[in-house]
Design goal:
alpha/beta; Glutamyl-tRNA Synthetase, domain 3; three-stranded parallel sheet; three-stranded antiparallel sheet; Rossmann fold; 2 domains; about 15% strand; about 300 residues
Length: about 300
């Protein structure tokens, strides 16, 4: 059975980019008669904004994106993570890292938005120093592949594109990558729909799944929504939150961005009718990984103007 999920971080309200992901995830699940779960990724309490989770759930409900079962909170899974700790320390080839954020920048190679860690603490003594994290010692080379429903086969060497990434903190708190893998396994996730900006995360998680012997979900990476400056629409870039009163037009714009070609008359329908049409007409083949910046800007600007 198909089991999908939408996993927002409660660091603020939903914006158009996160809505596109939610819509794509929901439609893919419902078009295949699957379950759709909500997981609140609130493990990083420093990024969690009080009340953001309730706001996100209210918006999803108002946009007719109805989930199955109760929402899952990562912060409530700490006992599960702890129970895995000793097992994982034996199965994962890890080493302590004492690098501060400044040191990580010094011992890493910039590559786009990523910092490729050199493995400094693997070859230098960490004795009597404050341990800040435990990193996975990736095999050399670490060739990982995933099959994406829209992009096709994706292959990369993580030892070059990622470097050894953190999996634990000294207090045994698991990293985002490992927590996602454990939660997806625990909840039986079979399909993951997310933005193309998380391709590297998908490859990292695929490697962890291989090591742990977990089944790898099927992937669908969606084109990114960008603002007029060409930046990914995000909370960091002060993206406008979606509005309850503009649910119908915003859903229409999300479907347009996903190349689903909704009929113009649908724009004035209520969210339930829009989503019902979208489920019946969902076509992954329409989604192009080559969605250009102009199209993304036009759709985003249209929504932005309506919000203003």
């Amino acid at each position: 059975m198909y089991v999908g999920r939408f996993a927002p971080t409660p660091s603020g309200p939903l914006h158009f980019g996160s809505l596109v992901t939610a819509v794509g995830s929901y439609l893919d699940a419902r078009s295949k008669n699957g379950k759709w779960l909500i997981r609140i990724d609130d493990l990083d309490q420093d990024r969690t904004v009080k009340g953001a989770d309730s706001n996100i759930l209210r918006m999803l409900d108002s946009y007719a994106l109805y989930w199955d079962d109760r929402p899952i909170y990562q912060s409530k899974h700490k006992l599960m993570y702890d129970s895995w700790q000793h097992k994982l320390k034996k199965e994962l080839d890890i080493y302590p890292c004492v690098c501060s954020r400044k040191a990580i920048r010094e011992h890493s190679t910039p590559q786009g938005d990523e910092l490729i860690y050199s493995g400094y603490c693997k070859t230098n003594s960490t004795k009597n120093k404050l341990i800040r994290s435990y990193r996975i010692d990736l095999r050399q080379p670490c060739t990982v592949s995933i099959d994406d429903a829209a992009l096709g086969s994706i292959t990369d060497d993580l030892s070059k594109s990622s470097g050894d990434f953190a999996v634990f903190k000294p207090d045994a708190t698991v990293s985002y990558q490992l927590a996602s893998v454990l939660d997806d396994h625990h909840t039986g996730i079979t399909h993951i729909v997310r933005g193309e900006d998380l391709l590297l995360s998908s490859l990292r998680q695929r490697e962890l799944q291989r090591i742990l012997g977990h089944r790898t979900p099927k992937f669908l990476h969606l084109p990114l929504v960008k603002n007029k400056e060409g930046q990914k629409l995000s909370k960091q870039n002060k993206a406008e939150s979606i509005k309850l009163e503009l649910a119908s037009s915003t859903l229409f714009n999300a479907l347009t961005f996903l190349s689903q070609s909704p009929p113009i008359g649908l724009k004035n329908e209520n969210p339930r009718n829009i989503i019902s049409w979208a489920v019946e007409n969902w076509k992954i083949s329409n989604i192009s990984s080559k969605t250009d910046d102009v199209k993304a800007e036009e759709v985003t600007q249209s929504t932005h103007n309506q919000v203003d």
